[in-house]
Amino acid sequence: MSQARLASCIPLPLEHRTLVSVVEKAKDWALMHGVGMRDRKHFTKDAIQIAPFVLLPSPFPKTEFTKAIELQPILNELMHKVAHDDEFLTNTLQNALQVDEFTANLFDIWVKVRDEGMAQPISLGMLRSDIMLESRCPHTENQCAKHTPYCSWKQVEINSIASGFGHLGPVSREIQSYILRQLGQAELLKNMPENRALSGLCSGITEAYDLFGVPGSVVLFVVEEVSYNICDQRFHEFEISEKRPDIMIYRRTLTEIYEEATLNDKKQLILDGHTVAVVYYRSGYEPAQYPTAKEWDARLRVERSTSIKCPSIHYQLAGTKKVQQALAAPGVLEKFMGAGAATGRVRDIFTGLYSLDFDESGERAVDMALADAERFVLKPQREGGGNNLYGADVREALLRMRHSRERAAYILMERILPPLVSGYVVRPGAAVPPPLTDLVSELGIFGVIIGTKDKIYCNRQAGHMLRTKLADANEGGVAAGLGALDSPFLLDM
Ligand SMILES: Nc1ncnc2c1ncn2[C@@H]1O[C@H](COP(=O)(O)OP(=O)(O)OP(=O)(O)O)[C@@H](O)[C@H]1O
Ligand SMILES: [Mg+2]
């Protein structure tokens, strides 16, 4: 069975000279507009290099795009409810906690903060729901009755911490618009949807700041030791600085927070003499970002404070793979959303998600995956890419863990098979012109939600990003050098 294919936005291949010339122009455009990252091999703070990008926007069906945009506020609210359901989080995570130290440490912080009473009832959620078109279709052998090369889209996962590409998403549209204009295809720009992810996400931060309501307070970005994805982070700072010159932004690692930030007797987080209004985590989602007990201590200190956190610790727990899997179990969406039409719409975006807990249903899932490992992805409770297992590795890991409680730290997910599209990926240091390759895309829809357990102050969709990778690659992290920046070219199908 050959994989379904979507037509590219203009006929390919491009003529050699045209391709070389437009790639050279595009690289310079990239460097001059922040389509960049820091070089991992030759790191210096004095230079950025181009981030990998797809030369032309990748096709995406308009109806499916619209559906994803419209669904986002519903997903935001669902996540908000999940994050505030103590019993559900506790029950869902309990088996994974016994075998996954990282999630257990996060959970312990949540329990401590909850037991002493949350100093700040408001949370800021800046979420990103990642989705892929599914080319296999249950309706007919291979193709939908619509005879389109996709059936619908399915959710890969929803991110609740450090959901990046608020800048790189929109700027991908801008660079590809420039490229299409240089190719004499300006009339195609109308198929590229506007993308206000950067301003949408930043206004989430400033709205939370205003709700905090302390004049002269500051915003704290929690950052990694070295930020390779520096453009994406800095453009958030530039945007806030432009719109709200009254707001100062600090960047600190967890280690620096341990050393420099204090809690006063009102549980305000004080940094450099200023009260911290909003804490925005761009780090803190993987074990390596907590190398010692100091970083865990810093995290606890922040969570205990009155600052509005993005995300608060319970929001981070709500974004775990285990929670996503639990939401797909029968009756669970209904518990959070009732039995209305919205529940059905959310259920439709789930692909097969299975628990690997040490019980009968976990056993069935293990058997099912061992029988056809290629159909599945095995996922631990991790963020940041590069942790999932695919194909033969799924089989090997399950054979190894089958009789061990360790398997409860993972979930099993059906693999989505998106349609292919041909395209050129421009990479730093690679030969020009790039080869024409088969690619697949993953769309991320941003959402912003601010609220307490009982009151929602704002809930909206906030732009999008598209990442594209080689069709035979398992994962597509752009910062990891696997995926490439892209933007959708909407098709009426
Ligand atoms: N069910 C699936 N079918 C196909 N591909 C998948 C599936 N799940 C994950 N992937 C691929 O693996 C990548 C990483 O998966 P996932 O987003 O679940 O992990 P993560 O570590 O949380 O990554 P991120 O840092 O992007 O949040 C996805 O971007 C996608 O390319
Ligand atoms: Mg993730």
From TrEMBL:
Its EC number is 6.3.2.3. Homodimer. This is Glutathione synthetase. It is an enzyme of class 6 (ligase). It comes from Bicyclus anynana (Squinting bush brown butterfly). Pathway: Sulfur metabolism; glutathione biosynthesis; glutathione from L-cysteine and L-glutamate: step 2/2. One of its GO terms (cellular component) is cytosol. Mg(2+) binds at residue 383. One of its GO terms (molecular function) is glutathione binding. InterPro entries: Glutathione_synthase, Glutathione_synthase_a-hlx, Glutathione_synthase_C_euk, Glutathione_synthase_N_euk, GSH-S_sub-bd_sf, GSH_synth_subst-bd, PreATP-grasp_dom_sf. It catalyses: gamma-L-glutamyl-(2S)-2-aminobutanoate + glycine + ATP = ophthalmate + ADP + phosphate + H(+); gamma-L-glutamyl-L-cysteine + glycine + ATP = glutathione + ADP + phosphate + H(+). Keywords: ATP-binding, Glutathione biosynthesis, Ligase, Magnesium, Metal-binding, Nucleotide-binding. Belongs to the eukaryotic GSH synthase family.
